Write a sequence for this structure.
């Protein structure tokens, strides 16, 4: 093989590798399904998916962003009751890991409410499904009684 032909083959191989590298996504994240999870007595049901992208394991392992989508079905038979899906999102703030809560409420018996939201620098996502009286936010009983279901934990 001549020198010019060897150079042409190497150039072609390098170009093909570059095209493959550029055309493939940097981080192809797939959605992980979760649920169904139920409130006690199956009075509410939550199901959905979670997509985490940009995991960083430098100091504290976190995902650059997490998108949570799902459906909450109210199965309470009283007009005064609602189904709740409460998410506890632990995120990185410097070297600390505080959390915030994000709630979805559905007060229409038999109906399904769709939801979707995104958070950044996420370390962990937990879920609790409750069914209780109407209110502007979940009760302390909903938040602190029982166990949280872990949907995502950065490793």
């Amino acid at each position: 093989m001549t020198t010019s032909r060897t150079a042409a083959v190497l150039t072609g191989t390098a170009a093909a590798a570059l095209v493959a590298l550029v055309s493939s996504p940097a981080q192809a994240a797939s959605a992980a399904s979760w649920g169904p999870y139920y409130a006690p007595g199956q009075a509410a049901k939550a199901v959905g998916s979670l997509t985490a992208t940009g995991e960083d394991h430098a100091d504290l392992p976190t995902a650059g962003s997490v998108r949570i989508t799902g459906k909450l079905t109210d199965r309470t038979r009283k007009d005064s009751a609602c189904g709740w899906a409460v998410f506890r999102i632990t995120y990185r703030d410097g070297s600390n890991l505080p959390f915030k809560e994000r709630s979805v409420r559905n007060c229409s018996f038999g109906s399904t409410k769709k939801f979707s939201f995104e958070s950044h620098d996420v370390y962990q996502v937990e879920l609790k499904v409750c069914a209780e009286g109407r209110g502007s936010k979940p009760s302390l009983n909903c938040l602190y009684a029982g166990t949280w279901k872990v949907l995502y934990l950065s490793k």
In short: The chain has a mean pLDDT of 84. Strands lie at 32-38, 44-56, 62-74, 81-91, 99-106, 112-133, 149-153.
